[in-house]
Write a structure and sequence with these properties.
Structural class of chain A: mainly beta
CATH class of chain B: Mainly Beta
CATH architecture of chain B: Sandwich
Number of helices of chain A: 0
Radius of gyration of chain B: 13 Å
Oligomer: heterodimer
Number of domains of chain B: 1
CATH superfamily of chain B: Immunoglobulins
Order of helices and strands of chain A: EEEEEEEEEEE
CATH topology of chain A: Immunoglobulin-like
Largest sheet of chain A: 6 strands, mixed
Distance between the termini of chain B: 38 Å
Largest interface: A-B, 23 and 26 residues
Strand content of chain A: over 45%
CATH architecture of chain A: Sandwich
CATH topology of chain B: Immunoglobulin-like
Number of strands of chain A: 11
Number of helices of chain B: 0
Helix content of chain A: under 10%
CATH superfamily of chain A: Immunoglobulins
Helix content of chain B: under 10%
Order of helices and strands of chain B: EEEEEEEEEEE
Shape of chain A: globular
Number of strands of chain B: 11
Strand content of chain B: over 45%
Distance between the termini of chain A: 41 Å
Radius of gyration of chain A: 14 Å
């Protein structure tokens, strides 16, 4: 069974204080690893897809990286508007098209 | 462009009452459709998914059912709500097996009282 574990569950950062979120996964062949951002009371919003170890993607202050066992979401010089829950999910190469989600990293950036 | 609509945004229902949540997708054909429930501290729980009209797979035995009467319409229902059905319900769609992930709707906050 595909499993995704995210840590830390919750993180409080001062504005400008860079940090990283971790997503550890086990899957029988990785088709893709996905990062989403979710604001309170809203649906998850797609951020990145990573397909193979060594791949990196960036968007504004966010950078996602991938190894064979985990992914990191680096937040550089965060701003209060980066406060959200970040969800990680994996999709297996074989079987159905379903995503297995982690429980999320809740990030609060304090001005 | 593809869009997904989910309604209502919030709903308060008494125990024992019926439920119907609707989700529609625009701008794509033959999408895979999903219903998730999100509870605090438990992450996203897949309830149902559908790969075509009338084709529904259930992930978790429960008080809920799903139907897909049209290609781009997905409905979540219950005949009699329980307190434990409270939560944030999300509809999502994807296309094929291309690894593009899911696109989510805006969600429905259901409170059963």
């Amino acid at each position: 069974e595909d499993q995704v574990t995210q840590s830390p569950e919750a993180l409080r950062l001062q504005e400008g204080e860079s940090s990283s979120l971790n997503c550890s996964y086990t899957v029988s062949g990785l088709r893709g690893l996905f990062w989403y951002r979710q604001d309170p009371g809203k649906g998850p919003e797609f951020l990145f897809t990573l397909y193979s170890a060594g791949e990196e993607k960036e968007k504004e202050r966010l950078k996602a990286t991938l190894t064979k066992k985990e992914s990191f979401l680096h937040i550089t010089a965060p701003k209060p508007e980066d406060s959200a829950t970040y969800l990680c999910a994996v999709q297996a190469l074989y079987g159905n098209n379903r995503l297995a989600f982690g429980k999320g990293n809740q990030v609060v950036v304090i001005p | 462009s593809q869009t997904i609509h989910q309604w209502p945004a919030t709903l308060v229902q008494p125990v024992g009452s019926p439920l119907s949540l609707e989700c529609t997708v625009e701008g794509t054909s033959n999408p895979n459709l999903y219903w998730y429930r999100q509870a605090a501290g438990r992450g996203l729980q897949l309830l149902f998914y559908s790969v075509g009209i009338g084709q529904i797979s259930s992930e978790v035995p429960q008080n809920l059912s799903a139907s897909r009467p049209q290609d781009r319409q997905f409905i979540l229902s219950s005949k009699k709500l329980l307190l434990s059905d409270s939560g944030f319900y999300l509809c999502a769609w994807s296309v094929g097996r291309t690894g593009y992930g899911y696109t989510f709707g805006s969600g429905t906050r259901l409170t059963v009282v």
